[in-house]
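FW: tagging you since you asked about this chain on Friday. Here's the raw sequence from the shared folder, copied in full. Didn't touch anything.
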Amino acid sequence: MAFAALAYLFWRYVRRRNSRHQPSRELLLITYVASRLGVWLAFSTFLQHHVTSSDPRENYIPILDNLLAAAVPIRDFYYPYGPFLFPSILPFYLVFGRSLAGISLFAILAEALALAFFVKSTSRLERYGEISPSWVREALALYLLNPATLYWTVFQGYHSIVQTAYSMGALYVLLRGNHAIGYAIGFFGVAGSKVLAVLDWPALLSVCRPRLAKALLGALPLLLTYAIFHIVTGNFHYGFTSAMFLQQAGPRNFYPFSEGNVWHLLTLFGDLLGFYSTFPGKLLPLLSFGICFVLGFGYWWRCQRRGLASFSFPAAMGMTTFTMSLFFLFSFYTGNYYVPMLMLPASLVVTGPTFPDQRAAWSLILISGLCVTGDVIWTSQGQSVLINAVMADSLGERFVGGLWTASILVRIACFAMLATFGLRMAVAPLPHHASESLTPVRVA
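HL: got it, structure written out here
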């Protein structure tokens, strides 16, 4: 939580400099380089040897070693990872002596690519009056030092930032008017990162007016990739909805992936794991997410059809924030280490002119800090931490369990607020002079 306070203070400082019309680009660049380089050097030279439990150590390294041994493709290794994720990580893993340092550097470079496309997109739109430079600087200030990104992306090398790189690249290309290529990049994020990249797809429909023919053409690379993958493995079973909402619902797998969401909180009042793993309990996440998403997306579409909202980059960031916040609220499959995929789009949303107060920014900072705190408590205490909140004999255990339970309540409230903020950003009207056509459209 100390880093959450630091992120808030840094954002406030940049915001104050903006209000005084003082330059802050150099400050942001120095902060970015110093934080990424400093954390990675500390991790690669010393701290990586003290990581005993993490996805990169327990899952990524065995998968990469099996790749080197030509023991893949095997569905059990890839599922639900995209078939191009680990071949992309492999060169960095080898260059740094098959260590976690190479995996971490890959995540840092993926983040750099995402930020580069983000800055290129916003710079392009600044010329059309859709985004002000101060808005972009405040968003970057909030993003750069948030604890979730520093801990999971920069420090440990979790892969969730990779799908953000695909998404930002796709949005930039779409803004340039190259629709088929933009859709292809956006759709291919599933093969290049993980199945959760489908959460970025609604943004592809809200950044510019959808072109159905171009979207179908852009889907071909993804479809061909998985067709070849199926032919090679002979065991293709890639159910998107089951991987995101149902697959981890069984009693054996529920706890490790559901820390912090509404379904896990309800287990405080009884043993619901059996209900969650059978019909109709296992459908609750999909139905809850689906109903809320359809209502929200339908509301945005109706506003757009009535001329009350426009296709735009801020609308795309709002739609991504809305969709991912619903995912973290309702899915069984909500590991805290996936939170970095939300941070960049949500940073633009909560610092926008639609939310002039600090409540929106605080909701994102609290999510970032409490997800790291909750993960640390979970790792140290295990599945008993929620039970300890009400049943432990030790006062210390009861305090930690109660603190962790309170953090879940705060996170649920903040995710609900973020979903609301994202939808409000998506339906917010653009300035009048920018509401017609913000970017040139290439005509085939």
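FW: The two ends are 51 Å apart (CA to CA).
HL: agreed, and DSSP finds 22 helices and no strands in the chain.
FW: great, closing this out.
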